[in-house]
Amino acid sequence: MSIDSLRRWEEKGKIQAIRTPSGQRRFDVDSYVPGDKPDNKKKAKSTDSESTLRQIAKGVVQYAQQMQKSRLFPYPSALQLGVEKLQAICVMQNKTQPQGIPDFLSSKWGEKPIKDWAIEINCPEEWKNVQFIEDQKPSGFCIELDGSYINEAERIQNEVMEEVFKKSLQNPNLYVEFRRLLVTRPVITKGDLDVKSVLELKPLQKVLEDCYEEAPVSYKKQGKFSCCGHCGGLMHRTADNELKCENKHCFKQKKQDVPFECDQDDEVLWLKKGLRYFIHRPGCAELRIEKRMKDLGLEVTLYPDCDKYDLHVVFPDKTVWAVDVKFWESAYNLAFKVNSPIPKLPHQPYHESFFVFASEIKEYGDEYIQEFLNHCPVKFKKSQVMFEDTFLQLVDKKLKSCQQ
Ligand SMILES: [Zn+2]
User: Between 324 and 71, where is the model more confident?
Assistant: First the structure.
């Protein structure tokens, strides 16, 4: 594509260009609008900061991935372009701008909530309280906004589904056993995984290998790996050599970490990032609710019909409840991922369905629920969306009414 045609497009308003502080023009290919000049100019403008933030999220995630491999790579172009767009926003508002990428990645920008950037940013209110980088890693918000890890989790899920459909006659529980393994064993030795995949999950052997990767040696403290006492995930070392779970909410639980035992000639594996974030993290809440339902004597099925939803609960009076459990930092971002109501099982359709948020983020409160309800394209009733503890109270109440 020639520069001339880009300039012509810019003049016609078909594409947006920004000028970098050095005066260079950058064209934002994502902003290209085919056909005539967009008549809703205001709308195009309001999404501009939002798209800048999305680009930064993508860049920060790619940068973190590169850093794991080698420190010699150049900065990812998404990060470069994102920071340049941010610089342009600052210039337009006559405010101090980040002096390049290292400055952006520092405590002055990336490690600060967006509202403290001292510039006007047109983005969802909820985003203003969050930051891109926490503990020198992309924050949960950043991971959700970028979207590449959810794609990884979805790709692996789809591969599993394919195998499961081929083999479901031999073992109808195959899918549930697979998910249970991912949630209960986020860290596993190569030896254990081999045994599991040969004895219990043989049809999924190949996919299972794709779920785990080598645990980073830099996470070892005094030669040993440790796991989080709350979620079981691998602990990393912070800058002050403290052990910390990747899930920042585990910290509040104040559980003792657990040393991970492994034979010297064996290898320690952990789940790939997408699965850690989008399968293991909510999975802990899913299994917790499953256990509670069982303890109450209720009939409960995890991930019915190959994951139509998370929990299928049957009460003594045969009332059926369907539950989807979510654990996202951003209610706004989650809202847009939910694009249909919970589907019904043809053989046992539910009477009520619920969206339940893991109790680890309970402190986000009613605002979080409201944000989700406001932006979700599917119209849920307020009574369908709640935190885990409210849901458990509802179950208790329903069960009591059955017993009367
Ligand atoms: Zn944890």
Answer: 324
